[in-house]
Request: fold
Amino acid sequence: MQRRHRVAVVAADRVDSLDLAIPGQVFGSARSEDGTALYDVIMCGQRPGLDVTGRGGAELFQLTAPYELSEALSADTVIVPGARTDGEPSAEVLDVLRQAHSRGARLASICAGAFLLAAAGLLDGRPATTHWTSAGTLARRYPRVEVDPNVLFVDDGNVLTSAGAATGLDLCIHMVRNDFGAAVAAEVARQVVVAPQRDGGQAQFIVHHEPSDDSGSLEPTMRWMRARLGDPLTLADIAGQAAVSPRTLNRRFREQTGATPLQWLLTQRVRHAQELLETTTLPVEDIARHCGFGTAINLRQHFTRRVRLSPLAYRRSFRQR
Reply:
């Protein structure tokens, strides 16, 4: 029986409660078609009686992690939740992170967890992000880190960082997608009831207008678009469905998704193509029509630009995994 991908969540003292819970929820929800768990998730603690904090750093409760920090050294992926950053980081935690990185583990941080990766020297010369309110502090404290405060998460190969706590969901689902494909990731998103895909380059914070009759959520329009991925939708079609002008539609999409309507639609089509390549034996020409690309050539161009593999290479790669 193939060994499951092991995820270790490293809990430093004064760890954030939401950050701590996210990896278990996401990776614990990932299942194969026959219902087999795809990940083993363990929590490794810095010491017994760890302080767990809530918003603003208020102490909520204490916990004793079931695994010692050294157990993280056997993990394939090490997740670093955010913790309070106003003290000296634990030398023991930093040493474990360095050792895990040296032996080839994938490391990822949620929110202020980036401060621990930076303190360990693992973000030097790398692009990284953290919560937008802390990005300036991270940049000043660790000037060798290329801090980008304007994205949801950064995937820099074997070291990944995410912004505010909720973006930890996006990052973890992104890693599931990289490990086991778009179909598994979409099912995980359904299980934890979040959007199946938010690209890492999306802006961290969204402009929210005061509620009024003409400024609602775009979710109904997005559902309408997802149900018609195979149709040749135009900007005018989408604006008509949303009952707004194309200019207003563009503005709202940028505010709520960080992309234009047609850019967002293209992303959904590529993700659907990934699912069909993973879960069916349909020829590429049929998948192109199902997903609204029209021809296999169009699908190949857009797919390769987004995924960096051709559709057939992606199918082969997924089946090998």
